[in-house]
Amino acid sequence: xxxxxxxxxxxxxxxxxxxxxxxxxxxxxxxxxxxxxxxxxxxxxxxxxxxxxxxxxxxxxxxxxxxxxxxxxxxxxxxxxxxxxxxxxxxxxxxxxxxxxxxxxxxxxxxxxxxxxxxxxxxxxxxxxxxxxxxxxxxxxxxxxxxxxxxxxxxxxxxxxxxxxxxxxxxxxxxxxxxxxxxxxxxxxxxxxxxxxxxxxxxxxxxxxxxxxxxxxxxxxxxxxxxxxxxxxxxxxxxxxxxxxxxxxxxxxxxxxxxxxxxxxxxxxxxxxxxxxxxxxxxxxxxxxxxxxxxxxxxxxxxxxxxxxxxxxxxxxxxxxxxxxxxxxxxxxxxxxxxxxxxxxxxxxxxxx
Length: 353
Ligand SMILES: [Zn+2]
Fold this sequence. Notes:
Layout: H1 2-10, H2 23-56, H3 90-93, E1 101-102, E2 108-112, E3 115-117, H4 120-137, H5 140-156, E4 158-159, E5 164-165, E6 172-173, E7 181-182, H6 189-206, H7 209-220, E8 236-238, E9 244-246, H8 259-276, H9 279-299, H10 317-334, H11 337-349
Antiparallel strand pairs: 1-2, 2-3, 4-5, 6-7, 8-9
Bound molecules: zinc ion.
């Protein structure tokens, strides 16, 4: 005891060579080690805790520097906050019509050419519908199921630290055209927008900060309009007239200009803007609204079914109805009568309830 209690004074000048034959030396070293442990506990413990927290927490995305889309056409629109039930609840509309298989991981799977894949859009549709169910029925088991799916899909996603992209790991002939083949991996602005919507909802429901961090990283993919040669994960571009497009099928610069996918993405960007309220989230949303307002008449077919896309001008009665519902929602968000007039014009052109 004496040796230990006298230790601190002995070793103030620093450690000395231990002499195994000198009992006082051994006592002194023991005291030094005890002191070292004490110092280490007091000094290093907070650092260790921070390191462990850093390992456990999702690294946040770097903040955006300066305004995004500096060269884009951006008109002013009012943006009203809507409750979710005030908008078209397409995810509820999917309930009961989405039987799905799961793989060994528990995630819904699609079988394509005999191979199992995690389909980013199909999974997010099922997840949003399941989340709606969990909210309507207060079913926390369903909520936890969606959370497990989401964690796994984020784990499987492609990231560079600042962005998260949900890849299609299978090829796809757009409209069935072999000439319009999308080579895997490819990325879709529609999938990015709907995952953004899901992550915003999960954050609002659970308060779990991971969902906010993941949402930020998904949002960042909408701010990068470099060509696919510079960013193979690009899902948006600015056309030669300065209009900002979110691309459901970017197809390495051969833009499809898909109407419904763009407006689905805008829904996610709107939900995220309502959560985050920054100049950049609002600018992206307004840039998208500006483009929709400019180009909606180009999708219209007077007296007929609207075009699914401007590149191929294919037509689909199912998507014509979706266009009408989406335009109606944009009217509710902005109260700009243009969108309601256009929804009504589309409906007058063709309506098959
Ligand atoms: Zn097309």
